[in-house]
Write a structure and sequence with these properties.
By secondary structure, the chain is an alpha/beta fold. The chain is built from 14 helices and 14 strands. A seven-stranded mixed β-sheet has the order 3-9-8-7-6-4-5, with helices on both faces. Strand 6, helix 9 and strand 7 form a beta-alpha-beta unit. Helix 3 runs antiparallel to helix 10 and helix 6 packs across helix 7. The structure holds pyridoxal-5'-phosphate. Pyridoxal-5'-phosphate binds next to helix 6.
Length: 520
C-alpha cells in the first residue's frame, strides 16, 4: 500500500521529499513507539526532592545503585498520550461488536465499575484484619450463594483466577477424591486417564495433562455432539474424569448430556463440565440437574467482568457433594454474626490452595453487581437473548456462508465452515483480515478444530438488532466479493490497519517479550 505522498515536514527553504512516509500516524491515530524507545532518560513528570543526605541515610550496605535505573522518563502529558495511543491500537468491546466465539465478549455494565470502585472494596488489602473487611467477605459469601443457586451445586471454590485455573482446581479435587477412595480401599489410585471430546477448548486437554493425567480423545457425531458409543467404549476403571463443554464449542447443546453423566458415574469417574459457555443456559438449566460434579464459571464471560486486555479473569468452580470435601482453601465461614476466611482446613483432605489470598475481589464485586441488577428473570433473559442473537446471525448469513451444522437452531454462538469459499481462492484467514478493513474484529477462526476453516461467531445478548445488522450487512458484502473472485481485496488484507498482515506463527513460536537497548 502506498503511503500518502505528503512528505516529511521540512525546515524552511528545504524541498519537500514527496516519497518519504509521514512518520506520525494515519488519520488522527498516532503511531507510537515502545515507551523505552521514547528516550528521555533524564526526564521525569514528577519532582522528587531527594537530597544526597536522604540516600546516605538508607542503610543498604553494598546495595546502593551504581548506575541510574533505565526507566523511561516522560512528562505527564507524554505519559497520558503514550497510554491513550496504545489503547487505540487495541480493539475494545466499547468500540464495536467483538464477535469472538467461545469468549463471550459482552458489554461490561458501568454500574459494575462504579460499585467496584467504592472505597470499601477498592482500598482494602488482603492482609488487613478480617474484622475490618466484613463487607468484602459478605460479597464473597453472597456471590458464592448465587453461584451455587444458579448451578444447583452445594459448594463453590471462588479463588481460581481464570477458567483454565478453575479446570485445574476441579481436576485436582477429582484427583484428591479418587486418591481418598483408593486409600479407603487400601489400593493405589489407578485412574490415570481423562476423556476429552475432539471439539474441546485447548485448555481442557492441557489442564488434564497439567494435573498429571493422560488425555484420551472422544469422537464426535456428524451432528456435532459427543459420540456416546465412543465414550462408552473408552470408559473403564482407568478413567478419572470426563470433561465435556456444554453447550459445546460448536454452539450446540449436548442432547445426551444425562446419558453422558450416567455412563461416567457408572464407570466410577467424575463428570467435569467446562462451564465457559454458561451464558447460553444461565437461569434456565442447573448443571447439578445434569449430573455435573465440577464446573468452572468464567465470571469474565457469563457475568460480564472485563477481559481480553480489559482486566483479570475469575474462574470459580462449583462442586458436587462428592467433591465438596476436597475444595481448596480459603472459603468464607459464618462465626455467629461475623464472617471469617477459613485459610487452613483442619478437617478434610483438601489439596491446598490455588493462589495466594482469596482470588479476584474486584471481579467478585462486578459479577455480584451484574447478578443483582439483572435478578432471576433478567439472568434468564440473558441466556434467551444470547441464543436469539446468535440464531439471528445464523439466519441472516446462512444463505451465503455455510453453517457447519445447518439443521436446527444453535445456542449462543454460530459456527460456519469454509466450504462456501471452495474455489474462491480466499481462505478463512483472508476473510477475517478483510473484516478488519471493513471495521469489524474477526470472529474466532480455525476453532473448533472439528470443522474445516472454522469461523465461530458469538454476538452475546448485549448487541442490538442495529449492531447485528451492521455486522451481517458487512459480512454479506465481503462474502459476495469473495465469491465474485475479488481475491485482491482479501489476499493483502488488512490494508488499513496500522500493521499489515503479520507472521502470526512466528509471533507465537518466537515471541519477543523483552526490549533490549540498542547497542550503538
Ligand atoms: C474461555 C474458555 C476457557 C478458558 O477460560 P480462561 O478464563 O480463558 O482461562 C475454557 N473453555 C472454554 C470453552 C472457553 O471458552
Amino acid at each position: 500500500m502506498t503511503m500518502l505522498s505528503v512528505g516529511r515536514p521540512t525546515r524552511a527553504g528545504e524541498a519537500l521529499d514527496p516519497e518519504a512516509p509521514i512518520p506520525a500516524g494515519r488519520g488522527l491515530l498516532q503511531d507510537e513507539p515502545l515507551i523505552f524507545e521514547l528516550g528521555g532518560w533524564g526526564q521525569t513528570g514528577v519532582d522528587f526532592e531527594i537530597g544526597d543526605g536522604d540516600l546516605d541515610a538508607i542503610d543498604l550496605p553494598g546495595l546502593t545503585r551504581a548506575a541510574p535505573p533505565e526507566l523511561p522518563g516522560l512528562s505527564e502529558p507524554e505519559t497520558m498520550r503514550h497510554y491513550v495511543r496504545l489503547s487505540q491500537k487495541n480493539h475494545a468491546i466499547d468500540l464495536a461488536l467483538y464477535p469472538l466465539g467461545s469468549c463471550t465478549m459482552k458489554h461490561n455494565p458501568r454500574l459494575n465499575e462504579k460499585l467496584a470502585r467504592l472505597p470499601g472494596f477498592l482500598d482494602i488489602h488482603p492482609l488487613q484484619p478480617q474484622s475490618t473487611v466484613q463487607g468484602a467477605l459478605a460479597v464473597m459469601d453472597q456471590l458464592a450463594h448465587w453461584l451455587k443457586t444458579l448451578t444447583g451445586m452445594p459448594a463453590v471454590a471462588l479463588s481460581p483466577k481464570a477458567g483454565a485455573q478453575g479446570e485445574l482446581c476441579g481436576l485436582l479435587a477429582i484427583r484428591a477424591a479418587h486418591e481418598a477412595q483408593a486409600a479407603r480401599d487400601g489400593e493405589a489410585d489407578a485412574r490415570r486417564v481423562v476423556l476429552v471430546p475432539t471439539s474441546a477448548h485447548g485448555t481442557n486437554p492441557a489442564t488434564a495433562a497439567q494435573a498429571g493425567y493422560q488425555v484420551r480423545e472422544i469422537g464426535q457425531t456428524p451432528d456435532g455432539r459427543v459420540d456416546l458409543a465412543d465414550l462408552a467404549a473408552n470408559l473403564g476403571p482407568d478413567v478419572a474424569a470426563v470433561m465435556v463443554t456444554n453447550p459445546n464449542t460448536c454452539g450446540l447443546f449436548e442432547r445426551d448430556i444425562l446419558e453422558i453423566s450416567r455412563l461416567t458415574h457408572a464407570a466410577g469417574a467424575y463428570f467435569y463440565c467446562d462451564g465457559a459457555n454458561f451464558n447460553a443456559i444461565v437461569g434456565r438449566v442447573r448443571p447439578a440437574d445434569l449430573g455435573v460434579d465440577a464446573m468452572h464459571i468464567n465470571l469474565h464471560k457469563t457475568f460480564s467482568t472485563p477481559h481480553g486486555g480489559g482486566g483479570p479473569g475469575a474462574g470459580p468452580v462449583v462442586l458436587s457433594a462428592a467433591l465438596a470435601p476436597f475444595a481448596p482453601t480459603p472459603w468464607v465461614v459464618h462465626d455467629g454474626e461475623t464472617l471469617r476466611l477459613e485459610e487452613h482446613a483442619q478437617d478434610g483432605p483438601a489439596f491446598g490452595r490455588m493462589c495466594a489470598f482469596h482470588g479476584q475481589m474486584g471481579m467478585y464485586v462486578r459479577a455480584l453487581a451484574y447478578m443483582m441488577s439483572h435478578g432471576a428473570d433478567g439472568l434468564r433473559q440473558v441466556a434467551e437473548d444470547a441464543v436469539l442473537n446468535a440464531n439471528y446471525i445464523k439466519a441472516r448469513l446462512s444463505g451465503v456462508m455455510s453453517a457447519a451444522f445447518p439443521d436446527g437452531p444453535c445456542m449462543h454462538e454460530v459456527l460456519f465452515d469454509d466450504s462456501w469459499l471452495d474455489g474462491a481462492g480466499v481462505t478463512t484467514l483472508d476473510f477475517a483480515k478483510a473484516m478488519i478493513d471493513a471495521g469489524f474484529h474477526p470472529m474466532t477462526m480455525y476453532f473448533p478444530l472439528v470443522v474445516h476453516g472454522a469461523m465461530l461467531i458469538e454476538p452475546t445478548e448485549t448487541e442490538s438488532r442495529r449492531e447485528l445488522d451492521r455486522f451481517c450487512d458487512t459480512l454479506l458484502v465481503l462474502a459476495a466479493a469473495a465469491k465474485a473472485g475479488e481475491v485482491e481485496m482479501f489476499k493483502g488484507a488488512p490494508f488499513h490497519a496500522p500493521l499489515r498482515r503479520l507472521d502470526e506463527t512466528l509471533a507465537a513460536r518466537k515471541p519477543r517479550l523483552r526490549w533490549t537497548a540498542p547497542t550503538a
